[in-house]
Design brief:
The complex is a heterotrimer of chains A (about 220), B (about 270) and C (about 280).
Chain A lengths: L7 H19 L4 H20 L1 H17 L5 H17 L13 H33 L5 H17 L1 H6 L2 H11 L1 H25 L5 H4 L3
Chain B lengths: L5 H6 L5 H22 L10 H16 L3 E6 L9 H21 L3 E5 L5 H14 L11 E3 L4 H15 L3 E7 L3 H11 L3 E6 L5 H7 L2 E4 L1 H11 L2 H29 L4 H6 L2
Parallel strand pairs in B: 1-2, 1-4, 2-3, 4-5, 5-6
Chain C lengths: L1 H10 L3 H17 L10 H11 L6 E7 L5 H16 L4 E6 L4 H12 L14 E6 L4 H9 L1 H4 L14 H4 L9 E6 L5 H12 L3 E5 L4 H10 L2 E6 H12 L4 H4 L1 H28 L1
Parallel strand pairs in C: 1-2, 1-4, 2-3, 4-5, 5-6
Classes of the chains: A mainly alpha (about 220), B alpha/beta (about 270), C alpha/beta (about 280).
Chain lengths: ~220, ~270, ~280
């Protein structure tokens, strides 16, 4: 195997860069080390931006053949390709041509397409949670019944009509929120934090290689 | 009043000493248990139904002749807080890709983070190569959808509907899209395994999917699925950290009852 | 057998019927408002108190940490909070850690118009809008250390921050009396606590979407976050406290109808489930 394909190299890079970030988090190392830290973070931003090309290539790889071969829903793929390039062009920094992120057309599409789409998609959640709850909130077992009852109390607590009709529901809801909910949250938080910590240690020791190329 | 000893203040950053000590204890115990694991002393690992269900989900999709969807969340791998969830999700992806290659079932991997895209692609490609099924590997099925959260979600939902997903495995950092994806997964009749450490999304997954990995379980997924002795050994150190946390909670509770807040102050060092 | 089938059908009710009914009950109160009273909870009071108790001349940093998806719940909170801040003799510095933050902040500021009565706040002296800084948690840490180098120019005029009088009193997080964050997720409260509360002990209040309530609960109990407004209900409560009825109060009826219908669906689902089992 060529030396540059050896798995030890990315592992070594991971360890070095991770330690540069981790040690100064705890230990006073002075401004010089902090400057290096900042620089590395900036590198990661640059790498992230460079990866845009990968995304572009992936999208074209999927959607261009769909259009050229007139596969099902090819029209949508065509719209995607056109809009992708259109937004990129409209966002180019040439204010004298009316382009750029604050230019009229970019802002027009942003405010009138992206903004309502975002809000609508977020709004869909209200519908999905109702259908999911209709299906899942059933007293099949003791645990399910507890989930059902506590969920219902919190929903009523959040509705002005709920607290208007049953004023005690506010205290009950707050109790559920402040005591059992918090206890469970803290337990999950501690467990999750520890899990992430040990995963980080495995990465640093070179055992967790999922992020490299899937194992060997 | 700051009671951190003066020497500590000069060497270490204020408020972070206790965290560092805790990290060191967990790190040393992880290294120790990894060595033990390598020496053949493998600790007992309880069953995690959610992880065992992955085989069933892929098997079911194979029988139905439908594709398997596997995603690793929407967090960047470079994110300090949520990156580990993506790494955990990628470990699951590696396992799922191997199963899919073995059974000859189509695997679709929706990606949101561009930085993660090449990694996800390599993981899947490598899994197919290891199974000797490179002819079945389809690069266009590792699909970058959108960097915009809801664009990703929308793309994912429509892909599941169009391709009639047979299984949908989601392990990683998920936010508002968690419910959207799992509801659509349910609508198309996919068997769903989910997992996240994002506390506020766990209820949605619990309600809408068949199996849910909660918090720390996703971080243990790589070790659990790999059956690697050293990796499994490292999980014991998680328990060591938990015992220390529980002990600190109980002792500080008792001390506080007597008006002594030493542990609370110590944790602020 | 036939009744069993009816219950079975009801249990597996087509989701589209649920969506249609929900859509109607969300829409109706907008057309025919009911005007139900909203009781005020301790969290909204604590949130308002944190702003009321700020000494004159304090610097408050307001961060827009969400994208357009969160507008429905967070826009009323942002408008009410900035209104409250502009009516107090404090200095307001507006920033964004999310890329969509600046256009949203701009929308809020255009609605309030801080330069005009009743606020009469002077740009650059009483308030400033610094815009977006990339990097998420890293940016928060960098801001904590040094505002001037992390956000070197303001959003509106692209002038160096050193030229504005308000910025003379703000070099690092140590100069900040209160941090206000409007957020839907990450980066958000967790990161602010880590980067601003742990090292600098900056007091913080949070306006967030309803689902985030459990996530921030431990920070509220631990005292890292002084007060929080999770979701529309809290927005309505806060609007009533500060005496400026807005979108939050207007949406309170919708919250009532949609939530009650949600509970009714859960009850129907359970009746169907148990009746099906019994008839079998």
């Amino acid at each position: 195997m060529a030396w540059f394909r050896r798995v030890e190299i990315p592992i070594a890079i991971t360890i070095i860069f991770a330690l540069i970030q981790v040690i100064p988090y705890f230990v006073e190392m002075g401004t010089a080390v902090e400057a290096i830290q900042d620089k590395i973070v900036r590198w990661s931003l640059v790498v992230g931006t460079g990866a845009l090309l990968v995304g572009l290539a992936s999208l074209l790889l999927i959607h261009v053949p769909r259009v050229t071969r007139r596969r099902t829903y090819w029209g949508y793929s065509l719209v995607l390709i056109i809009v992708m390039f259109l937004m990129a062009i409209l966002g180019l920094p040439f204010p004298e041509l009316g382009l750029g992120l604050t230019g009229y057309w970019f802002k027009f599409l942003y405010d009138n397409v992206l903004v309502p789409l975002s809000s609508s998609l977020y709004g869909i959640l209200a519908f999905y949670i109702t259908s999911a709850a209709y299906r899942a909130f059933k007293a099949r077992s003791l645990e399910a019944a507890l989930l059902l009852i506590s969920g219902t109390i919190l929903v009523l607590r959040n509705a002005p009509l709920g607290t208007f009709l049953i004023p005690q529901i506010a205290d009950l809801g707050d109790w559920l929120y402040n005591i059992p909910n918090m206890a469970i949250n803290r337990a999950i938080m501690i467990g999750g934090g520890l899990g992430a910590m040990v995963l980080g240690i495995r990465v640093l020791l070179g055992y967790e290689r999922g992020y490299l190329r899937g194992g060997e | 009043m700051d009671i951190t000893p003066l020497l500590l203040q000069q060497i270490f950053k204020s408020g972070r000493v206790s965290g560092m000590v805790f990290l060191l204890i967990v790190a040393v115990s992880a290294a120790y248990f990894i060595r033990r694991g390598k020496a053949g002393k493998i600790p007992y690992l309880r069953k995690v139904p959610g992880l065992d269900a992955i085989d069933e989900a892929v098997g079911r999709a194979t029988e139905m002749g439908r594709p398997v969807f596997c995603s690793h969340g929407i967090a960047s791998i470079a994110d300090a807080t949520y990156g580990p969830q993506t790494i955990a999700g990628l470990a699951v992806l590696g396992y799922v890709a191997q199963l899919c290659a073995k059974y000859g079932v189509r695997l679709i991997v929706p990606v949101r983070q561009l930085v993660v895209y090449p990694i996800a692609r390599e993981i899947v490609e490598n899994a197919y190569r290891m199974e000797g099924k490179m002819d079945q590997f389809r690069v266009e099925d590792i699909v970058y959808l959108s960097g915009w959260q809801f664009g990703y979600s929308l793309g994912y939902m429509s892909l599941m509907q169009r391709e009639k997903a047979g299984a949908n495995i989601m392990v990683g950092g998920y936010w508002a899209e968690s419910l959207q994806l799992s509801e659509v997964g349910y609508m198309v009749g996919a068997m769903q395994v989910s997992g996240t450490a994002n506390i506020h999304q766990i209820p949605f997954f619990v309600v809408a999917t068949d199996y849910t990995l909660i918090g720390e379980e996703i971080f243990a997924a790589g070790a659990y699925l790999s059956k690697d002795a050293a990796m499994i050994g490292s999980i014991v150190s998680q328990d060591i950290g938990k015992y220390i946390s529980i002990a600190l909670i109980i002792v500080s509770f008792i001390l506080l009852l007597f008006g002594n807040d030493f542990i609370v102050k110590m944790l602020r060092w | 057998m036939a009744t069993s089938r009816v219950w079975e059908k009801l249990e597996a009710l087509d989701a589209r019927i649920i969506y249609l009914i929900l859509w109607i009950v969300i829409l109706l109160p907008f057309i025919y408002p009911i005007g139900l009273p909203v009781s005020i909870g301790p969290q909204a009071l604590a949130y308002a108190k944190a702003i009321d108790e700020l000494p004159a001349g304090s610097i408050v940093v307001v961060s827009f940490d969400f994208s357009f998806g969160g507008l429905g719940e967070l826009y009323p909170i942002a408008v009410a909070t900035l209104h409250h801040l502009f009516t107090r003799p404090v200095k307001v510095v507006i920033i964004a850690i999310w890329v969509d933050g600046p256009p949203i902040a701009d929308m809020v500021l255009k609605e309030l118009k801080p330069e005009q009565p009743p606020y009469n706040k002077k740009y650059g002296v009483d308030w400033i809008f610094l815009g977006y800084t990339p990097g998420g948690e890293t940016a928060m840490a960098a801001l904590g250390k040094d505002f001037w180098s992390t956000l070197p120019t303001d959003y509106y005029y692209k002038k160096s921050v050193s030229e504005y009088p308000i910025m003379q009193g703000l070099r690092s997080a140590k100069d900040v009396a209160l941090l206000v964050s409007f957020e839907t997720g990450t980066p958000g409260a967790d990161e602010w606590v880590r980067q601003w509360y742990v090292p600098y002990k900056v007091p913080m209040i949070v306006g967030c979407i309803g689902v985030m309530a459990p996530t921030i609960a431990p920070y509220l109990a631990g005292g890292q976050i002084k007060g929080a407004l999770p979701g529309l209900r809290a927005a309505a409560e806060y609007e009533l406290i500060i005496g400026r009825k807005g979108l939050g109060v207007a949406s309170a009826d919708v919250l009532s109808t949609s939530h009650i219908v949600f509970v009714l669906f859960v009850i129907i689902g359970n009746i169907a489930y148990f009746m099906r089992r019994r008839s079998k």
